[in-house]
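Next comes this protein.

***
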Amino acid sequence: MARTFNRLAKKQHLEELVSDNQEMMTHPSFSIKQQQHMITTIIELSEKNPYVFKGFFIEHRETKEKYDFESKDLGSDRFSFTFDLIQFANEIVPDGGSHHFEFYFSAEYFIEGEWLIKDEAISLDLFDHFDAIGLSQIEVADQQFFPYFSLRTTGFTFSMNIQIRSNRYIEEITVDQIKVKKKYIDVKGKALSAAIPINRMDTIMVSRNTGLRQVIHSNHVLDFVEKGTHLHHYDYHIRVEIDELAELLLLNDFNDDDFDLYFDIYLNGFFQPTTVKVANPSLLASQLVHRDSFVHYGQLTYTFSPLFTEEYAGLSIRVTRFNKHVYQYFKELLPIVWLLRLFHLRRKIWVIGEKPGEAHNTGYYFFKYMREQHPEKEVYYVIDPDSNEYQHVAQYGEEHLLPYKSKKHIFYLLMSQSIFTTYAPEEIYPSHTRLLKPFIRGHKIYLQSGVLGTQNVSHVLDRFSSQFEADLFLVNSKRERTIVLKDLHYLDNQIAITGLSRFDDLFDASTDLPIKRQVLIFPSDHETGLHYQNEMIDAIAEEFLAVVAKDSFKKFFERNDLTIMVCLPQSMAHWTAAFQEAGCTVTLQSDIQTIPLMKESLMMITDYAPEALDFSFLTKPVLFYQFEHDYQVAQQETNMTYGLELPGEIADNQEGLLHFLNRLAVTDFQMSSGNRHKADHLIEYRDTHARERIYEAANKFHRKFFRFGKLKQHPFMIEWSVIWEKFKKKMER
């Protein structure tokens, strides 16, 4: 018995040794060749370790059955097998259905004086080089077969009647250079595909407001293939012709709009393209967005400015439509701004805003406070006169409004002492050209739209990001201050703990409402766009709908006398009718004041909405339903240590969500002491003086530092940085 134990222990030791030395056990190459239905697999094994090749087999993932194939010894450590995929599938699963077939080989290795048999997936991790010859999806009658590499094992697999999302092979898209000229905008960058080469890349430009699509000129060139990782590195080049885009705008009578850029990438062997955003600016790339282009037509002027979106860091072309005389005023004013400011600084003008069409968040609340408590101050709010929210701020004095893109807007922005914004300051600028930034000298004071933590914002809000600028960053707690100081790299004198301006209403006991037995479902908002972005939004909405429509949840809500209020973001507005049919009361987040809604609700269910933290500050329970789906994005990483700091339980499936609901029902939906402590850790003040603290912090603030980060954005410095980075990459290669 002792010998048996020793043999088993040694075998286990040898298996661990093989696993621990995977790099030592890698092999030179493998290839998959396809001729119609015939699949030939060739592998080349390493000479470094003695081995005995045993054969090939295919494993049916669903049943774990293994099917051996006759192999050929091709000499020089090369082995192959050939089979008819359609014939094989008809024999194994004659009734069709959905299946996976994974490719393996067996070999016996000589390790530490012992021979050990090991079954190994024919995978990208195990082989240094991979070739695909004629590999493509197969369609026969009503059956479809898709070749792909498993995310679990990186092993080669054929799926049967299961659509494989080809975006798994797009490893990375980056933007490395943007140049804006009078007649065109040039975009250059890198595209990396894993294992499967790219045959074609089409660039699609899509209007965010109308959905209008335009194919624009682009090309790509293979740079090199990385050994071991199987990454194909491509250089791409996109050119946006300004005159063609301007003609499109005029023909369709466009107003302001953002045109998002996408790639339709055709991978070798896939019938349908993979759609991905042109995204991910490198540190240098985003700093190259330093000017805009413009076109005059009659009494109109269109400006074209590249920018990167917040959620996906996707590249967009922002189109701004001016009256020609306003644009001329704007251009003529810039050269004399420095002189004019000397005569207007004593006025201490404050400009406040959110986005041109918005007046319902922290910007609105701070403007309201200033007009009510400090009417003597020259305070102005930027708003689009056509916005549905214009009257929210008009009641505090129309003479204190700055109609977006008007002469008054431009003048007061340039003369301002301080600029308070809920989002990036550029959101309320008349143009996104970087040439405008040096002329806007007011202190940039960031009011924030929500408490940091539920989403990763470092790529957007970092101190040295050229997509964002803040001289004073207002936070809610010592914990949030640490995030801004350490993760976002702001200086100590650039951070003030004040609380959000809307918290005065949140904690105002005089506006408290009777708490209804109402569950508030509050999905987070997402950027809309093409294909996978809208599919992701629909997948999230569909999952929340499945929860409220499922019998087990319906019985729970009925048993606990609960009603459901669904507050949808604008990106899910088209799901309103579906939730209403499921018996829910539905509203849009943009159509309602959320603070009264939170005050009257018993509990909240969300995925990542920042408003969940506001809700937790009311010492009410929050459940985070963060289910897995095929469209997970890296932006959902957070600055928090999940489970340790988030003030609510996290469920990743319906069973877990129902379990947490039942636990809450036992306490009559009271927030646990542990989650209450976590919420307390995220807020410094539960009072009605946040706006007063913001006012005092802004009055005391003075810039006491030289902007070394902004020096890097000088075009001369940028060009030299690009040259230096390219030189270093060539040397490393």
Observations:
- Residues 284-288, 633-642, 705-711 have pLDDT under 50 and may be disordered.
- The chain has 22 helices and 35 strands.
